[in-house]
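FAQ: What does a ligand-bound record look like?

Like this one, built around fe (ii) ion:
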Amino acid sequence: MSEKQLFTREDLSIRMGTEFVFRFYRLLKGAAIYGRNNVVMNQYAQECLQAIQPIIQSDGRLFFKIVRDNCFLNQAKIQVRADNYSIFKGFLNEMRKRWIGEIEFSEEIDNESLKDLVSLLSGLEEGNESNYLYVKKQLEYRGFGHIHVGKLEFFRDEEIYVDSEDQKRRSKEVYFKSIDLVKEVMEGVKNQNVVHIRKAKRLMQNAVNVIIQDDSALLGLANIKNYDDYTFNHSVNVAIFAIAIGQRIGIPKKHLSHLGMAGLFHDIGKTKIPREILNKTGKLNPEEWGVIRAHPVVGAEIVLRMKEWGELSTRMINGAFEHHLRYDLSGYPKLTRKRKVTLFGRIIALADFYDALGRPRAYNRFPYVSEKILGLMMERSGKDFDPVLVKVFVNMIGVFPLGTLVLLDTNEMGIVVQTQEEAELMDRPKVNLLYYKDGRYHKGKVVDLSEKDEPTGGYKWSIVKTLDPNEYSLNIAEYLI
Ligand SMILES: [Fe+2]
Ligand SMILES: [Fe+2]
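The answer part, i.e. the structure of the complex:
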């Protein structure tokens, strides 16, 4: 599939979910003002149908669900952009008031049944938890077996906790299994054993599933800098960052796991670099540099020789071959014929750069903080990196990435546990407060820094500065995972 197609599909899937919400919301608002047979209502219903039918035609159904502050369409999260945030918020509000959290069309619907559904929803009593039962009954009376509504799931704080615990557990499993697997494959390559690609593919599919639901736990794991097993951790982190970027720009699910694979094995060529060179603390001589700079070509050759990669192999070759090329081709290997770096190559280059600079290594004892790396990326945007991807990446990591230790203006200390989706709220993440008792820090409640104090209109909490966890003898990993 060419990149052009990828991008049109991306636009399509983002647009479809957003379009559905916009048009359904307008129809719902219209129902409160106009009569059922008013021309305006007809027009709105018609336009809403134009958003609904293509979804049913391609997926066989339309299933819309609200989970906390997020909307899902056929299991995929609808990405809300800053410019339409207020519309989503308005729609969520209307649905919450009525305690309706799910709408499903299991086959194509017509103008009349859609208007019926919307007038039923519009007429519901506010704050009545059993509204959905009433709508269900009414739909049954009218013989609309293909339309379903469901109750809004209300998550109390503890439930969110349990739910996110489950997500964390799955994330941890994927993360650590991937590390073992990379080890196995890389050692297999070294000793020329047979490697099990299918296992790797399955793991990456799991990673994609976890990331599509909520990428915060896996991104958190990737963000915590681990000191040992650099190569293996690095490979897994690159795969995670790559999938998370890919998801945000709308790469179809099937290709996301391929992207993960390409990220997982981008440095496979390093298996052929002697350990003395790889771990050398002193300055490398030109010859040693030459060996290091050969790893993209060596990696591409390794992939080429393995038939097990199947349809994946071109993408895997790109990942290995292109990750040090740079956007303007000023990196290595030097190409004799100029061409564009592929989308996968550009994504992996970005993920690789971020993860590589963020950790201490033999020749880089003090890792850069993420703020500085993002700054470097923006500086080199358009030269070393694809400018569009840099924007997506910077937004994804946020000003205060997951796991950052912060001091709040209430003099409380906390760890960033969730970043915000909207660009203007980037400096207002969710923070898990810490309290000190019996000689150590404990996790307190999670606060949302975008929350305002009603009477004054000011924010309840703001970040004053970031703190160095080492100064407080805190192992962030313990608190985050
Ligand atoms: Fe590399
Ligand atoms: Fe790398």
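Follow-up question: can I read anything off the structure? Yes, for example: The first strand starts at residue 62 and ends at 67.
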